[in-house]
Amino acid sequence: MKGNKKRLIITAVAVVAAFFILASASASGGQIQLDDRMLIQGIGIDQEEDGVLVSVHISQPSQTQPVLEQVKGETVLDALDKLVQRSGKVPLYSHNLVVVLGKKCGEEGLEHYIDFFVRYYEARPSVGMFLAEGTAEEIFTLKEGEEYVSPEEIARMGQGGKTNGWTVYTRAIDFVNQLWGEGTSPYMPVLSVKEGVVEVTGTAVFHEDQYSTTLTPEESRILLVITKRLTGGQIVVELPEAGKVTATIRQGSAKVSPSIKNQEPQLDITITCQTEISSTENMDLAADEALLPNLEQALASQLQSSAEETLQKTLREEQTDPFGFGRQIMQEHTAWWKENRENWEEWLTKIPVSVQVEMTVESAG
After folding, report:
1. Domain encompassing residue 309
2. Do residues 218 and 167 make contact, with C-beta atoms less than 8 angstroms apart?
3. What separation, in Å, do the N-terminal and C-terminal C-alpha atoms of the chain show?
4. Do 208 and 303 reside in the same domain of the chain?
5. What is the pTM of this model?
6. Parallel, antiparallel, or unpaired for β 210-215 and 147-148?
7. Residues 222, 235: Cα–Cα separation, whole Å
8. Which of 306, 324, 325, 347 could covalently link to 184 via disulfide, CB atoms 3.0 to 4.6 Å apart?
9. Backbone torsion region of residue 183, taken as left when φ is above 0, otherwise alpha when ψ lies between -120 and 50, otherwise beta
10. Are 129 and 209 in contact (CB under 8 A)?
11. Are 72 and 50 in contact (CB under 8 A)?
12. C-alpha to C-alpha distance for 14 and 78, rounded to whole angstroms
């Protein structure tokens, strides 16, 4: 993680920039006309060999569609300042909807790329954060017909978890809180371009501020349910007597119970899901309630296997904790945490984890 010294330098630069913007406003009578401002709607950031490439979608009152501007600088703020010099207009960041960071930014470490969006007085800490599977430039320059893929559409993709049951949504302030807090690992949705279409394809998990791994949609669902944010989605299983059955998740949650035994932590996780049958290859299943216990068992078994595989990948293999288990132990077993916080990553590789799934099929029709 980058040090406090660099954060202070970045903060100082942002304050200086804010001073000059306010000074310009004062020189023009204390007000900046809308025509003299750039309404920033989306920002893409890529790390290149010779600096930072910033791609910006800008909306103007006189134009029906956003325009794309690209500029390079030594830092994000330096690039944005050059954009101001080029256009002669003052940026308005309060309209910004998304920040997309290229994969190389994630591999290098995101802290010094996103600090501006949290500290700058006019930026939106609630802006949605995304990691590009490739480059942010690829996403910002992509067109659907004659129009660029809009920041509004990308923002809606980030909130798709309400219906698809696996897309996470991360704001800049969420990422920073996870990064600077104890006992948790940051994460954000991944954007990919497939056959000329932008879509969310998974969840990027970070080790401190550096990219570590990507969770699949199924693994992302486990992240959502354990963090109590699963609100929808479908699970497909196959029964010998009914064929393929699709169950819609109506409610999902989890109870995480950390405990300390013989000075060693362990986790007991109980996942609870309420579902209903959405479709089946055998129409008689809807009328045969005797088959429902088999369906519940199959759904529970599949979700439990997915949970165990996801925990193996995140905790054991990557030594990351996007679920916030460490934070919960810190809150409930403070004395143990104070003695072992420095070794939490080592504990992740060996902490015993028990997963149980309670599945209910509420309706067969």
Report:
1. 221-363
2. no
3. 52
4. no
5. 0.87
6. unpaired
7. 12
8. 324
9. left
10. no
11. yes
12. 10
Among 199, 215, 231, where does a domain finish?
215
CA 260, 179, 168, 238 torsion-angle sign:
negative
Residue with the two structure tokens 């790390």: 47
302 CB-near residues (< 8 Å, 6+ apart): 235, 237
Query: Based on C-alpha coordinates, what's the Rg of the chain?
Result: 24
User: Based on the domain organization, do 58 and 11 belong to the same domain?
Assistant: yes
**Which amino acid is located at 338 in the chain?**
K
22 burial via Cβ count (<10 Å: 0-12, 13-18, 19+): middle
Backbone angles phi, psi at 18, to 5 degrees: -65, -35
At 142 the three-state DSSP class reads: coil
Is 285 in the same domain as 265? yes
Residue for token pair 């008689």: 284
pLDDT tens track for 338-360 = 999 999 999 999 999 999 999 99
In this structure, what token pair is assigned to residue 256?
A: 């995480």
Beta strands in the chain (DSSP E): 37-48, 51-59, 67-73, 90-92, 98-101, 128-132, 143-144, 147-148, 187-194, 197-207, 210-215, 234-239, 243-261, 264-280, 353-363
Residues 189 and 263 in one domain: no
Q: What string of DSSP letters covers 63-129?
A: -SS-EEEEEEESSHHHHHHHHHHHH--EEEGGG--EEEE-HHHHHH-SHHHHHHHHHSTTS-TT-EE
- Residue 14 has a pLDDT of 45
Which tokens go with 206?
A: 């970070």
| pLDDT tens-digit series, residues 121-180 | 788 889 999 999 999 999 999 998 888 999 999 999 998 887 888 999 999 999 999 999
Asked if the model's pLDDT at residue 4 lies above 90, the reply is: no
Same domain, 37 and 124: yes
Residues whose CB is less than 8 angstroms from the CB of residue 247 and which lie 6 or more positions away in sequence, other chains included: 234, 235, 236, 237, 275, 276, 277, 278, 295, 299, 361
